[in-house]
Amino acid sequence: VYITTYADKSTIDRVKETRPYGYIVKPFKPIDIITTVLMVLNNYKHKNIDTQRSETPHTDDTPFRIKETINYINDNIFEKIEIADLVTLTKWKKHHFIRVFTKHMGVTPYQYILSRKIDKAKTMLLDDTFSISEIAFELGFQSYSNFCIAFKKMNENQTPEDYKKHNITNKRIEKAQQL
Fold first, then answer.
1. Residue 92 class from Cβ within 10 Å (0-12 exposed, 13-18 middle, 19+ buried)?
2. pLDDT for the residue 58
């Protein structure tokens, strides 16, 4: 990640060649750092399917097929996503797809979908316009309680209510400090 005061075209063109995970121009806001770190973590999680960042050359189209499924998941995060739909995208057999996906992503397709939905829920929880029930419904959980159970499992036993309260309190503190 580059942190610099330079934002001219020639500098950016030179930096692009290094394929950085991020580029922050000074002066920056705290949200710029948070956003960049989230992007870095996301890119690191997907390093096995990013053929341009990969250290080992790929001789088959496996990373591209997995990347297509990741894109499908991200584009349809508010829908119920079936493994069968993902298998269709790859044209592989179900068990082969699950094995290859798990090898490249480090988690099963189901775990990946659930983690993406919980990540989306965290973003939505920071917005006061959505109730937790609405978020659970929008993300395709069968019930409020199913959503809360999944959220707690993936967030060190923290409930969605606790997450929302904690982060909204932090936002208010930050605003007060800026004044």
1. middle
2. 47
